[in-house]
Amino acid sequence: MSENLIDNINVLSQELLPTPEEVMEALPLTGAARETVLSGRNVIEEILDRKDHRIFVVVGPCSIHDIDAAHDYARRLKALHDELNDTLFLVMRVYFEKPRTTVGWKGLINDPHLDDSFRIDEGLIMARRLLRDMAEMGLPTATEALDPISPQYLSDLISWSAIGARTTESQTHREMASGLSTPVGFKNGTDGSLTVAVNALHSVSSPHSFLGIDRRGRCAITRTRGNRYGHVVLRGGSRPNYDSVSVAMCEKELKESGLPTNIVVDCSHANSNKDPALQPLVLDNCMNQILEGNQSLVGMMIESNINWGNQKLTSDLSALKYGVSITDACIDWATTVECLRHAADRLRDVLPRRLS
Questions:
Q1: Which of 187, 316, 333, 347 lies 20 to 30 Å (CA to CA) from residue 228?
Q2: Three-point CA angle 334, 92, 329, nearest 5°
Q3: How far apart are CA 203 and CA 262, in angstroms?
């Protein structure tokens, strides 16, 4: 029997990528970037440890598809980051990989030219350069850890990572997260279940050994010590779960499982029924809970872009509107500034008391 009837039957071709080491040597971590990354991680860890009174807010586009617009957004956010830094610790959402229920654009790394050319080699370079630019300007960044290989190329530039609702139950992603150098937020399941996230938190805090690659691109047994900065992200499911009753139920489940009661609320996705106009209302509701004495809400997530809503990706890239998402709909910059300033004003005198 011919060998080609046994192996790689459905594989058309394979192309070698540059190794993580080669990409990192081409775009090395500068001193300024290193300081931003380490400082960002330290602040979030201290918030989770209740040593820093602030709330961290992961805010930015649903996905990055336009490098120029991403730089524009980052410059705006850096100014707001500095303005509100006494109360809110702003971290830019820089998502390069998009999970798909069926098919669709999978993100900048997978298809950087938005034309199904799938130049992953170029996408990794573009992603690393953008992250380094943001770190050099002093803006910490967050992303979703989706592909288990890409962190070797990018993770030294990230301050916070998320594991999405579709992958929270995945053993591969729990193992990978146990070795990440960032705090990691696990979203509840797509059906709204907390069980998968709670199980993930137990798993990620434990040591693991699994197949991976090293910085030279070689297959390796990766052994981890576990990540103690895992926490839950409420993103809704069959119904929203940001309300005080849902938050209290999450607190109860975390306590009963012997886990820290650190809760982040995602204002988008099912919590806003994917309607961007509802995101500020979700944020405002959570601020009300803190004002009323809640101790567990430590972070928020907001999908925001330069301009409102979203648009379909078409073959005519020149027709795309500037600063408008091509994935989930986002609030615009003006609304972002308004709701974050309002939140900071309301919490400025309250948050320090949570540490006393």
A1: 347
A2: 55
A3: 16
Please check whether residue 57 lies inside any domain of the structure: yes
pLDDT digits (tens, 9 = 90+) for 165-224: 999 999 999 999 999 999 999 999 999 999 999 999 999 999 999 999 999 999 999 999
Is residue 2, in this structure, part of any structural domain at all? no
Residue 140 lies in domain: 12-349
Tokens of 293: 């004495």
For the record, the structure tokens of 242 come out as 């940001």
The number of CA neighbours under 13 Å toward the Cβ of 106 is 16
- On whether residue 6 sits in a domain, the answer given is no
Q: Indicate the residue type of 326.
A: I
**CB 304, CB 331: distance < 8 Å:** yes
- Tens of pLDDT, residue by residue over 291-320, are 999 999 999 999 999 999 999 999 999 999
Give the N- to C-terminal CA distance of the chain in Å, as an integer: 74
- Measured in degrees and rounded to the nearest 5, phi and psi for residue 154 equal -130, -20
Q: How many residues does the chain have?
A: 356
- The neighbouring-strand residues paired with 234 are 265
Q: Do the Cβ atoms of 227 and 184 come closer than 8 Å?
A: yes
Is residue 4 a part of any domain in this protein? no
Query: What total number of domains does the chain contain?
Result: 1
149 Cα distance to chain centroid = 16
Report the C-alpha gap between 24 and 217 in whole angstroms: 12
Region class of 116: left (phi > 0), else alpha (psi between -120 and 50), else beta: left
Residue of 152, 150, 153, 173 lying closest to 162 (CA atoms): 173
- Alpha-helical (H) ranges within the chain are 20-26, 31-48, 67-83, 120-136, 151-154, 171-179, 195-204, 244-256, 279-291, 333-347
**Greatest distance between any 2 Cα atoms in the chain:** 76
Full-model pTM: 0.96
Specify the CATH number for the domain of residue 139.
Answer: 3.20.20.70
Burial class (CB in 10 A: 0-12, 13-18, 19+), 239: exposed
| CA angle at 234 for the pair 200 and 164, rounded to the nearest 5° | 55
Task: Name residue, tokens 């509107």.
Answer: 321
